[in-house]
Design brief:
By secondary structure, the chain is an alpha/beta fold. 48% of the residues lie in helices and 14% in strands. Strand 18, helix 23 and strand 19 form a beta-alpha-beta unit. Helix 1 crosses helix 4, helix 13 packs across helix 14 and helix 21 crosses helix 32. The longest helix has 30 residues. The radius of gyration is 27 Å and the shape is globular. The two termini are 41 Å apart.
C-alpha cells in the first residue's frame, strides 16, 4: 500500500473511494476478505459508473435530435476483456493503477481475474468489436446487435495433442459491464401457420412457438471517452418458464421442456450443425437475434420519426456476413404485415436501409438453408422470399431473355443439392450496397461468387478494406512501443494513425532501432513465460519467434507451416555443424468441433513439437509450441512478441485477415502469399519488406482448372517427398504409424489448397527470413518500416469509409 503520509491526487482518491464503495455495498465484501475477482468486479463497476455518466450526459444532449443511427448485426462480437480497454479509452489507466496500488492490489491481479468474453470465433467477431469501438471513437451513433451466449466459443484443451472442447463459462459469476434491460423484451415466433387475402400484400402469421428476446446492454466507450454506444445482446427466455400443471402432476422434467428449448437459442455460440437438430438450432439463433434487433430498430424509428416510411433516412442496417441475412425477409414482413406498407414501398425502404458485408469466397461458407426447414420454421418468410425471388427473376428475364443459366445462377432458391435458400443471394438482392473486405477479395467477388450479380447490378459491389482498433492492438497490448512512438512522434500519434508514416525517417537511426528492439525483447520475454506456463516448453527470447495464430482451417494452411518445420528439423539433424538461426515455431488456434481434418492438423503440430523439443540433436535451436485455448487475451501477449507473421493462406481464399495487420503494426515481418489484405499491406509497407511467396490467386485458379495433382510438386521437390515420407511413416506418431496416411494421401492427390504447389517457394522464403534475422540492423530497420506502413489499416479509416460511402452518416473526426 501507499505509505500513510502519501496523499493521492483528487481524481485518484475519488476512484479509490468508489472502488471501495462497490466492494462494500455491491459485493458485500470487506477489504480484508476481497479476492482478485472481487477487486476486478469492484473496479469494473467503478469504471462503468464513469462510462454511464458520460452516456447519460450524451443522451441528454441528443434529446430531440433525430440523428441517423447505424445498426450493426453480427452473430459474433469477440470483445475479450474490457477492463483495460475501457480504462484506457477513458484515460483512467494511471489513476486505476494508483488507486488499486493504494489498496495493495496490482492492475494485473484485477485484469487477469476478468473472464475473456469469447462471443466470437475469430476474425469476424474481432472485426465487429473493433468496428464498434471505432464507431464510438468517431462519435457515430450506433448499436451493435448480437446474442448473449451463456457459453461462447468452447474452451480448448489438448489431451495428447487431440483437441477437446469444454463449455466456456464467462457468465458464471455475472458480467459487471452489462445492464439488464428487461423493459426491452420482444416476442419472436417460429413455425405455425399463415393466412391472408390473395388480393392483399399483407398476411397474418400465427406462430406455433414463441420465444422472448430480452436485452442486455454493454456500453462501448470511444477513444478519450467522448462518445458511448451500446452493444445490445439478446438472451432467450421462454414466455412461461414453467408449466405448473405438469410440474404439479409429477412431470418435473416435462414442465421445463419449453424453457430448455427456448434458452438453448442463446446457450452456445455455433452449436454443431452436422445434424438436422443442429441446423435447426443455428437457424433459430440467426432469426432470433435478427428479429429482436429489427423490432428494436422499428420501435426506435416510430418513437423518433412517427413513421416507418422514412426508415432509410434514420437507420443504416449493416449485415456482418450472411448470418443475419434473414433480415431482408423479416424487415419486409414487419413493414408489410405489421405496419401496413404496400409491398413496393416496403421493398424500397428495405433496400434503402440494408447493406451487406461479404467475408468469404468459399462456397461452403455462403450459408444456405433447406427449403423444407425454412417453410417449417419460418413459413411467412418463405412466402416473402418466394415473392422477392419471383420479382427479381422477372427483372432478369426482361433484361436477358432466354438466359436460363443466368436465371439459375442468381435465383434465391438453389436446386443443385436439394432445394435450398441461398442467404448470400438474399442479402445481395435486399441491399443497396454489398462490400468486400479487401481490394483483392472485392475484385474476386465480382469475378467469382457474385459475378452474375455484378453483371446485373454493376455498381452495387464496393470495397471496404478491414482495419483494426489501434487502441486495443497497439496502445493496450504494447504499451512499451506506444510510449516509444509518443516519444518519437509526439502525442498526436495517439489520435492520428497516419502519423506512423513519419517513422520511416527513423528506420535507419541506430538509437531508435535499439529502443525499438528493447521493447520487442521485453515482449518476447513475457511470451516466453506464457509458453512455459501453458505448454511446459522453455524457449529462448533471442530466437526468431515465428507465429501463426488463427482459426485452424485447411485454407489457412497451418499444415504448410508444419511441413516446413519438419523440413527444418530434418535439415538441422543432417547438418549439425551448420550455423543455424534459432527458431521458435508458435501455433495457436481452435478447430471447429466437427472439423476432423483441422483437428488432425493440430495433432500433427503437437506430435512434431513433442519429437523436436525432446531431440538433443537440434541443441534447442528449434522449438515448437502449440498454445492451447487461443483467445483475445492470449493474442494480446503473442502479437507484440512476434518476429515473423505467418499469413500463408491459399491465394484467393482469405477475404482480408486482421491478424496480419495486428502483427505487422507491432513490428512483425510478414511471410505470406499475396492474399486478402496482405496485398494492400505490401503496397503500404513496401513489397521488399515482406517475405512473399507462392502462387497468385489467378495461378491457383488456373492450376485447379487444369486438374492439379500434388504428386507433380512432390516429384519436382528435393525436400517435400522426404518430409511426407517421414510423417506418413510414423516418425512423429510412433504410437500409431498409420495416423497421417490419409492426410499425406490427400496432399499427393487433388491438394485443393495447394500446399504442395507452394512448399518449395515457402521453404525459400523461410530461409530468407532466417538469414535476414541474423542481420540485426537490417531486421530492425524492416520491423520499424512495417510499423510505419500500417497507419492506413486503422478501423477508424474503415468505419469512416463505411459512414461516408455506404451509411451516409457524418463522422466527427
Amino acid at each position: 500500500m501507499t505509505p500513510p503520509d502519501t496523499v493521492l491526487p483528487v481524481e485518484t482518491q475519488a476512484l479509490r473511494d468508489l472502488i471501495i464503495r462497490k466492494l462494500t455495498y455491491t459485493l458485500g465484501k470487506p477489504v480484508t476478505a476481497a479476492q482478485d475477482r472481487d477487486w476486478f468486479v469492484a473496479t469494473a463497476l467503478a469504471v462503468r459508473d464513469r462510462i454511464t455518466e458520460r452516456f447519460l450526459k450524451q443522451m441528454e444532449m441528443n434529446r430531440g435530435k433525430a440523428k441517423k443511427h447505424v445498426y450493426y448485426l453480427s452473430l459474433e462480437f469477440l470483445i475479450g476483456r474490457l477492463l483495460r480497454e475501457n480504462a484506457n479509452n477513458l484515460g483512467l489507466v494511471e489513476e486505476m493503477r494508483e488507486a488499486l496500488a493504494d489498496l495493495g492490489v496490482t492492475t494485473d491481479q484485477a485484469r487477469q481475474a476478468e473472464p475473456d468474453a469469447a462471443l466470437g470465433n475469430g476474425g469476424l467477431g474481432r472485426l465487429a468489436a473493433c468496428f464498434l469501438e471505432s464507431m464510438s471513437s468517431l462519435a457515430i451513433p450506433a448499436f451493435g446487435y448480437g446474442i448473449r451466449y451463456d457459453h461462447g466459443l468452447f474452451r480448448q484443451i489438448l489431451r495428447e495433442g487431440w483437441q477437446q472442447e469444454f463449455p466456456e463459462d464467462w457468465l458464471n459469476f455475472g458480467n459487471p459491464w452489462e445492464f439488464a434491460r428487461p423493459e426491452f423484451r420482444y416476442r419472436v415466433g417460429f413455425g405455425g401457420e399463415v393466412s391472408g387475402d390473395d388480393d392483399s400484400d399483407k398476411a397474418t402469421w400465427t406462430p406455433g412457438e414463441w420465444v422472448d428476446a430480452v436485452a442486455y446492454d454493454v456500453p462501448v466507450v470511444g477513444w478519450r471517452g467522448e462518445h458511448v454506444n451500446l452493444l445490445r445482446l439478446w438472451h432467450a427466455q421462454a414466455p412461461d418458464p414453467l408449466r405448473l400443471d405438469a410440474f404439479n402432476s409429477g412431470d418435473h422434467h416435462g414442465a421445463l421442456a419449453e424453457q430448455v428449448r427456448a434458452e438453448s437459442i442463446s446457450k452456445v455460440l455455433y452449436p454443431a450443425d452436422d445434424s438436422p437438430a443442429g441446423q435447426e438450432l443455428r437457424l433459430r439463433q440467426e432469426y432470433f437475434f435478427t428479429a429482436a434487433a429489427l423490432a428494436d430498430v422499428l420501435r426506435r424509428q416510430v418513437r423518433q420519426a412517427g413513421s416507418v416510411e422514412t426508415l432509410a433516412d434514420h437507420a443504416a442496417i449493416q449485415l456482418n456476413d450472411t448470418h443475419p441475412a434473414i433480415a431482408v425477409a423479416e424487415l419486409m414482413r414487419l413493414l408489410v404485415d405489421e405496419y401496413g406498407l404496400a409491398w413496393a414501398k416496403a421493398w424500397e425502404v428495405t433496400r434503402g436501409t440494408i447493406s451487406y458485408t461479404n467475408h468469404t469466397l468459399l462456397p461452403e461458407a455462403l450459408e444456405s438453408w433447406p427449403v423444407h426447414l425454412m417453410e417449417r420454421m419460418l413459413p411467412r418468410h418463405m412466402q416473402i422470399i418466394y415473392r422477392i425471388n419471383a420479382e427479381h427473376l422477372d427483372g432478369v428475364r426482361a433484361k436477358f431473355p432466354g438466359d436460363d443459366r443466368l436465371l439459375s445462377s442468381v435465383s434465391l432458391i438453389g436446386e443443385d443439392h436439394g432445394r435450398r435458400v441461398r442467404m448470400g443471394h438474399l442479402a445481395f438482392v435486399g441491399s443497396h450496397h454489398v462490400n468486400g473486405v479487401s481490394a483483392l477479395h472485392t475484385g474476386l467477388m465480382k469475378q467469382t461468387v457474385f459475378s452474375d450479380f455484378h453483371r446485373l447490378f454493376p455498381h452495387r459491389i464496393v470495397n471496404k478494406t478491414n482495419g483494426i482498433a489501434f487502441r486495443r492492438w497497439l496502445f493496450q497490448c504494447n504499451p512499451g512501443l506506444t510510449s516509444l512512438l509518443v516519444d518519437a512522434l509526439g502525442p498526436r500519434v495517439l489520435d492520428d494513425a497516419s502519423a506512423l508514416t513519419e517513422l520511416r525517417g527513423m528506420a535507419d537511426d541506430a538509437i531508435f532501432q535499439g529502443r525499438y528492439a528493447a521493447v520487442k525483447r521485453a515482449n518476447k520475454e513475457a511470451l516466453a513465460v506464457m509458453i512455459q506456463e501453458r505448454t511446459g516448453v522453455r524457449v529462448d527470447p533471442a530466437a526468431l519467434f515465428d507465429v501463426q495464430i488463427k482459426r485452424i482451417h485447411e485454407y489457412k494452411r497451418q499444415l504448410l507451416n508444419v511441413l516446413q518445420t519438419v523440413a527444418l528439423y530434418e535439415s538441422m539433424r543432417a547438418h549439425p555443424m551448420r550455423d543455424w538461426t534459432p527458431v521458435v515455431k508458435i501455433f495457436a488456434g481452435k478447430a471447429a468441433p466437427g472439423y476432423h481434418r483441422a483437428k488432425q492438423i493440430i495433432k500433427l503440430a503437437w506430435d512434431v513439437a513433442r519429437v523436436v523439443n525432446r531431440d538433443p540433436a537440434v541443441r534447442g535451436l528449434l522449438k515448437v509450441a502449440f498454445i492451447p485455448n487461443y483467445n483475445v487475451s492470449a493474442a494480446e501477449v503473442i502479437v507484440p512478441a512476434a518476429d515473423l507473421s505467418e499469413q500463408i493462406s491459399t491465394a484467393g481464399m482469405e477475404a482480408s485477415g486482421t491478424g496480419n495487420m495486428k502483427l505487422a503494426l507491432n513490428g512483425a515481418l510478414t511471410i505470406g502469399t499475396l492474399d486478402g489484405a496482405t496485398v494492400e499491406m505490401a503496397e503500404h509497407i513496401g513489397h521488399e519488406h515482406l517475405f512473399l511467396f507462392g502462387l497468385s490467386a489467378a495461378e491457383v485458379a488456373d492450376r485447379k482448372a487444369e486438374g492439379w495433382k500434388g504428386s507433380r510438386a512432390i516429384a519436382a521437390s528435393d525436400t517435400l517427398g522426404g518430409v511426407l515420407d517421414a510423417i506418413e511413416g510414423g516418425v512423429f506418431s510412433p504410437d500409431d504409424r498409420t495416423r497421417y496416411r490419409d492426410l499425406v494421401a490427400s496432399l499427393r492427390g487433388d491438394d485443393w489448397f495447394m500446399v504442395t504447389a507452394d512448399f518449395d517457394s515457402y521453404l525459400d522464403a523461410q530461409k530468407d527470413a532466417m538469414t535476414l534475422y541474423r542481420d540485426t540492423t537490417e531486421w530492425r530497420r524492416k520491423a520499424v518500416l512495417n510499423t510505419a506502413g500500417m497507419g492506413w489499416f486503422s478501423s477508424d479509416r474503415s468505419i469512416s469509409e463505411y459512414a461516408k460511402e455506404i451509411w451516409n452518416v457524418p463522422v466527427s473526426r
